[in-house]
């Protein structure tokens, strides 16, 4: 059973790594030039925070999977919601790196709803799993506010116009 626990715990990190890989060249160029609010967290915090958050959400998904007896019909909705929110989580970095702030904002707003839905669907199954998702939801609230501010404060350039 430990292999399943490790697999579920590591899975979210795959998208996190890919997001970093996609964004790594944009950070020193475009991203640093964006207007950001004064309460923007230091860049060094992001990889640490996401490592903790991905580990917690991954292990939480394992707890749900285990409590529902694996890939059963009872697991379709709770793990389906989890998978959908994970897909939106992984979609945000490429959207942002493509300078598509509007789509990144739409993505994160949908992500917020799916995370809340995931947590609600997990509540009767395993309350510890829900508690493991609370820091993620808190971080997403901050990230959503940050995305809103960046989108509002950095209007998209019209084609043919330069800075």
Written description of the protein model:
The chain has 163 residues and is mainly α. The chain contains 6 helices and no strands. Helix 1 (2-23) runs parallel beside helix 4 (76-97), helix 3 (45-67) runs antiparallel to helix 6 and helix 4 runs antiparallel to helix 5. It starts with a helix and ends in a 10-residue tail after the last helix. The relative contact order is 0.14.
Percent range for β-strand residues: under 5%
Radius of gyration: 17 Å
Q: Number of DSSP strands?
A: 0
Shape: elongated
Question: What string, H for helix and E for strand, traces the elements in order?
Answer: HHHHHH
Residue runs with pLDDT of under 50 for 5 or more positions:
none
For the largest beta-sheet, the strand count, sense and barrel status come to: none
Secondary-structure-based class equals mainly alpha
Cα distance spanning the termini: 55 Å
Describe the SSE topology.
Elements: H1 2-23, H2 27-33, H3 45-67, H4 76-97, H5 101-122, H6 127-153
Helix pairs in contact: 1-3, 1-4, 3-6, 4-5, 5-6
Quick rundown:
The protein is mainly α and 163 residues long.
Name a few traits of the molecule.
mainly alpha; 6 helices
């Amino acid at each position: 059973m430990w292999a399943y626990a490790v697999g579920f715990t590591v899975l979210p990190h795959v998208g996190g790594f890919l997001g970093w890989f996609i964004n790594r060249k944009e950070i020193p160029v475009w991203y640093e030039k964006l207007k950001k609010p004064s309460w923007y967290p230091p860049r060094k915090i992001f990889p640490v925070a996401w490592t903790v958050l991905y580990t917690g959400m991954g292990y939480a998904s394992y707890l749900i999977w285990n409590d529902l007896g694996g890939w059963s019909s009872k697991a379709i909705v709770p793990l389906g919601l989890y998978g959908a929110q994970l897909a939106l989580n992984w979609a945000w970095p490429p959207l942002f790196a493509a300078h598509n702030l509007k789509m990144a904002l739409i993505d994160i707003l949908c992500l917020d709803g799916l995370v809340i839905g995931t947590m609600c669907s997990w509540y009767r199954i395993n309350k510890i799993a829900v508690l493991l998702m609370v820091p993620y939801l808190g971080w997403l609230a901050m990230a959503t506010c940050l995305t809103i501010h960046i989108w509002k404060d950095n209007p998209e350039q019209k084609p043919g116009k330069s800075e």
